[in-house]
Specification:
Number of helices of chain C: 20
Structural class of chain A: mainly alpha
Radius of gyration of chain C: 22 Å
Helix content of chain A: over 70%
Order of helices and strands of chain A: HHHHEEHHH
Chains: A mainly alpha, B mainly alpha, C mainly alpha
Shape of chain C: globular
Distance between the termini of chain A: 55 Å
Radius of gyration of chain A: 22 Å
Oligomer: heterotrimer
Strand order of the largest sheet of chain C: 1-2
Largest sheet of chain C: 2 strands, antiparallel
Largest sheet of chain A: 2 strands, antiparallel
Chain lengths: 176, 798, 502
Amino acid sequence: MLGPPSFIFRSVVRFLFFLVNVFALYLLLRGHNLPGGGFIAGLASAISLILLSLGIGLAELHRVMRFDPMRLATAGLALALGTGLIPVGMGRPFLEHFDGYLEHVPLLGRVHVGTPLLFDFGVYLVVVGITCKVIFVLGKSTQRLVALVAEDAARYASPVERPIEETEEEGGRNGS
Amino acid sequence: MLLLALGLPMVGSPFLALAGRRLGARVGWLALILPVMSTVLLGVLAMDRSLPARWGVELPWVPTLGLNLSFLVDGLSLMFGLVVSGMGCLVIFHAIFYLGTDYAHLGRFYSYLALFMGAMLGTVFADHVVLLFLFWELTGVTSFLLIGFLHGEEKSRVGARQALLVTGSTGLALFAGVMLLQRATGTSSLSVLLERGLPWGERGGELSLAMVLMLVGAFGKSAQFPFHFWLPNAMAAPTPVSAYLHSATMVKLGVFLVARMYPLFVVSPLWLPLLGTVGFTTMLLAAVLALVSHDLKSILAWSTISQLGFLIGQYGLGPVGGVGHDQLHLLNHVLYKGCLFMVAGVAMHATGLRDVREMGGLFRRLPLLGMAAVLAGGSMAGLPGTLGFLGKEAMLADLFQPLRDGASPWVLYAVGCAGVASVVKIAFSLRLVTGVFFGKEPDGVALQYHAPGLGMQLPALLLAAGSLLFGVWPGLLDGLFGQWAVEGLNRPKPLAVWHGWSVELFTSAGMVMMGVLLHEVGRRTGWRGWRIPGVLQADKAFEWLVERFQGWTKVWTRGLRADRPADHLPIVVTFVVMALGAGLLGLVPGLAERLWPEDVGMDPLRTGVAGLIAMTVVGVLVLRRWTAQLISLAVSGFLTCFYFVLYRAPDLALTQILVETVTLILVLLLLARFPNSAQVGEETRRPGRWTHYFHIGLSLATGCVATGLILVVTSAPHPEPLGARYLEQTVPLAKGSNAVNTLLVDFRGFDTLGEVTVLVVATLGCLGLLMRYKRTPEETRQGPLGPPGFGVEEQRED
Amino acid sequence: MNWPAAPVLLPLVTALITLFWGRPGMARRWVTAFSLLLQFAVGVGLVMSTYPGRVLVLGLGAWPAELGIVLVVDLMSAVMVTLTALVALVAQVYGFIEMRWAISHPLRIPLIQFLLAGIQLTFCTGDLFNLFVAFEMMLISSYALLTLEADDWDIKHAFPYVAVNLFGSALFICGCGLVYSLFGTLNFAGIARRTLEMERDGVVTLVSLLLLLVFGIKAGLFPLHLWLPNSYPTLPIPLLALFGGVLTKVGVYVIIRALGTVLPHDLGILHAWLGGFALVTAVVGGIGAISRPFIRGILSFHIVSQVGLMLLAVSFMTPLGLAAAVMILWHNLAVKSSLFLIGGTAALLNRSDDLSRMGGLWSRVPWLGVLFLVQALSLAGIPPLSGFWGKYMVVRAGLEAGEHLLVAGSIGVSVLTLFSMVKIWLATFWAEPDGVVVRVEDPRWRRMTGVVAVLAVVSLAMGLGAEGFSRIAIEAARGVLDQEGYVRAVEQFLGKTGGVTP
């Protein structure tokens, strides 16, 4: 299904990747006031990454990206949770949001910022992370990228099954 | 002091189990301390004449639920308490020699025994009816453990299970009865009830029910017909246990309960019929069964049941105001039966045999034991010079009295049963004694004989001596019985050895002659063909029932489709749809108007889009090729998105588009990853035609019910929904103009946090599934813990 | 002020830490155990601060109940939180003993924490949609755990669990929508207030029925229980203890909460319906348990039976009846999970949990036997162990409510329970068949027994110290039934808007 991508496709995909991500960022930032937000932006970014993976190949992408998308998702969750925990440290209820204005920002002038954006960014990261992870894992095994699959397996698969039987021989070792 | 007497065995029990490891067989001596202390303490209480006839102690335990450790001390409980603790001393003493060092885990044994004794004392002294039940069940559990002490043997396990199931379930009847009694009278204290009496007038029905239930409990515990079968099987326990639990104490709990209830319930019209028939039927039946059994302990077990039947029956016959000789019968039975059990135990220990037919001639080897056996057997048969004789006289007198007063059919039945049973009893008493101790000594005995120690025989001798002493000098008992008499229960009459040439004496003599005759017949035939007829082997029937019941449960469970994973969802959905459908039809007033409101505004554009969505969905079902199905599915998704646009929900529409896209990619990847399962040899089964129709019908019904629900509920929405509030507040409070986003991130940010967590977890789950360890076929066959399958055969799901 | 959120946040944070940690190791285990201990401590703290009858309210994001999500912890929730944390702690440590870290599945620890977060949120939430989210967290984690270490055969039997519960979730979300349409709010207190105020007709009963069905699926009410008895035994033992001990009880808890606090109290038909089906559930569960020839199967089917008993007590809808249900619920949490663990240890010693291939444990490992005996008899309701008190209260409540049939049924079910417990006992502990080896040389069983003993001690304390236990249960039940108190407590949380929405 996924043959070697042509040169044109690869170039277009790279260009699209940046375009879509800029759009995603825009969606994320304006989310609080206009249609958009972390979830939608995350999906857009994820699609861009998937396109990129089709364009340059999963192995290449893996070499460039270096980290496990699952980490992205975990970090996003931690960010969202952490945003909620800020007020807890101040003795306020969990998940209370604060906002304020940043004066004299270059180009934009007075900017309204608030912790909801941080929360939303966490959501964004989670959505990007999990979408990419699932699709990449499937892609890797479909394309028989054995080394990459093994790398995932080391992290997410049980080293051995059947606990009781396994340590039976261990018990035997102890006994001998 | 009472609390100490009750608590000591309970508290001491676990320590015995622990000490057993270190001390081995010597732990018995440690165990002996407990009953001796209890006996002494209770003895002091019994002798203390300064105490009132009925007094109590109360310790708070669970006052919130109205249950305290309240104890009631009167003649009845003192007498039973002394029997329990006194017999406890003798039995443990006996056990120390009997068990010797032959058995493992003696610490556990004495621990059970002590716990049992504590529970017994608790039961007889309990004032609160629920407390009584509590200890009652505890005796059942400890008896279960004791019967199964030699649990390596199948027989012990079966016997223990039978005992627990029978006494446990009848115990539950007692529980129900006790709770009803509590409910009907408003109090749960026996002493209060004994003082006030029962409100028969207002709540007669409830009280009668309570009485019947409580009596069922008593019958179960005392092995009365039709629960009689468990006791002989309980004899799989070591003999000291049998002597203690299954003759002297635990099985007497039923008798105790009846005695406790006597002053309260004797006025009930059901009292005599129930107790009379059950008691005397048991008496006769068990006596006959004792005669046709050959196993030494079985004979004793049946004879015990027979005597218990009589004890319960005599309460049934008793007049309002009190019975005359129950204390005598009780004491008598304790003395001779305890003695006989120990004699039997010693004899079995010495010869290694259990069958009466294989024994004989032991008198020469064990003259002292023989003497004891003769005395105890004589007492059981009711021969003059023993306490049994007095008992028999008293029994006959009590039976003839109502007969003279004008007989009801119940009394006639009772007299008939008792008469025949007494004859049979004399026969098997004779058989027991002569069979073991007299006659020619078979070779088997001489082969295996090893002399038992004197310590083992001592308790039996003591009991026999007691039987003789009281039999000759009954005046000793008069004082005791008088002191222990409970108002409304006992009206002790003075005892005398010689009553003159009365009817009773002649009857008694006649019975002895007939009994001897019966025994002679048996002896002449060599007891061939004397066995329990199959119809009366209720224990076998019970076991059969238990085994079959397990089979039935499998059939029933399979009938409920528990083992067919493919059927679970359809059943659940069907039930939900039926319940909701019934609710729609039954609960909603004006269903028709709500389903078809007058003013249905149909926007052509929206209707059209909805129609298109419906068409694509049908397309997914109808189209044959998966590519076409997929496209149809995708189209329906994008149409839904358009639908959101029509309702001016840009966020939703945007999300829907993106989700639709990602899903499509995912599905394509999945299809690539997992090719057509048929290709890799997996079996696919098409559902049968009727299943297919059923699924179509179920889906339609689900759709209809869902639609109906939505229409009905939304036809009258709440006037002040919260949504409007959010629209108002999004800018001033959450400082954002996108209400959807403020709702997601701020107002209900926690939900979003939760859902984001769900996403992460779902991904982890997917990874876990995709990275699954692949087992070898052999491993798969065996499963993680033994072979797969729930013990029921794997069924084809078609 | 944030204490009501603590039971949810702690496991979430722990899950994240252990996820970041990635590879398994001893340190990760220590962190997990410490966190669970902390969760237990928080639970104890919550119990102490809610007894008797105080309600802790936290409006998340400082919004008042009307606008935001509230977490509400009363005595009932607090005890549930505590017991859940305790069971999780014991099960987790048992799991640690069972498998060296080097060979254990790396995702198990974080997934269990996610599961716990979902469960604890269910107990603490005061909002219907949030409850849905909590259910989702809990269910998705349970699906993941169920399939994590499963083979093909396991997955076949785990499938109904996933399918039926997905259906339940779909039904639940419909229910949320309908409730919102009917009451205009999703907040428990808001719904309670509006049901008290508005004029009701059958539609309220209908929607309540829908919710009851949803929770019934989760709890395992007949005939919605079908997914349960075959899917649970496919789990590894420590997870089985957690699922069997806690997960279905969540369903019962939610039913108690919904019927007691949220929905109106006069849904007569619904309560009668519940009582009837609960009795059938109890009987079917008891019979099913007897039909199973292996320990995990017997105990799994038993869950159904016990759930039936609890719901039967709920259906009386009297303070005493509810207290009885609460009592059985708590007793079951401790007893059931420890029975699974004991069964697991026995299976470890015999290398099988098929009753026909077990035996000889009473003479070799008496301590395990004592534990089993205590817990099994407690389950069968033998006095004075913890199970008895629940039964005692059910019978009393039933007699007071005049439900003689249900009372008789509930007593009769004990016979079935006793039967299956005796069946296990005879085969596993007493029987000494040839060829069955007891591997006492395996060092793990001692530590396992030690861990399980903690739960046995708890259940013994519940039984012998029934005074305190029953008083808490009665207080908790009173709190659940006190709708007005609940509404008042929630409305007293003012948040940053000062309680008034301009």
